[in-house]
Design a protein that fits this description.
The protein is built from one helix and eight strands, in the order ββββαββββ. By secondary structure, it is of the alpha+beta class. The protein has one domain: Hotdog Thioesterase (Thiol Ester Dehydrase, Chain A, Roll). The chain is globular and about 40 Å long. The model has no long low-confidence stretch (mean pLDDT 95).
């Protein structure tokens, strides 16, 4: 398996700048992925020095997209597919990170049936847990233009 930290995440997700909310993958296996994002003042979800709740949710969704993108591209030799959030449960946001913080996002598969994946996700800033949720992702058969 390739060193995942060297992979350009833009090859794995359907989003394009300025709507990219992950910088790089730090860990990957077929059931779990971790990514990071350095929050900049120019980020569209940065307001009044803080990163919004919507930005946190989008980071989780794009982390899930990177997992499926990696599986499709590197393991199945297929194209990256489009997906969408089907449901979010048990969302807890303890604290909004600040501009210049680096956040770590982890999504771990709880179940996967056909094109539906349920993940448990966490977002940390340093060692502090700042958000968690369960997210249901639906994957389509539509090829992304990545």
């Amino acid at each position: 398996m390739e060193n995942v930290e060297k992979i350009n995440v833009l090859e794995l997700i359907p989003q394009h700048p300025p709507f990219v909310m992950i910088d790089r993958i730090t860990y990957f296996d077929t059931m779990k992925i971790s990514t990071v994002l350095k929050i900049t003042s120019g980020n569209m979800f940065a307001k009044s020095g803080f990163f919004s709740e919507a930005g946190i949710i989008e980071c989780i969704a794009q982390t899930c997209a990177a997992r499926m993108g990696y599986i499709n591209k590197y393991l199945l030799n297929d194209s990256v597919k489009l997906g969408f959030i089907g449901a979010i449960k048990h969302l807890v946001i303890e604290k909004k990170p600040k501009v210049n913080d680096e956040i770590d996002i982890t999504a771990e598969v709880k179940s996967e049936i056909f094109s539906v994946t349920l993940v448990a996700a966490t977002v940390k800033c340093g060692s502090e847990l700042i958000a968690s949720c369960e997210m249901k992702i639906f994957l389509t058969n539509i090829n992304s233009e990545c």
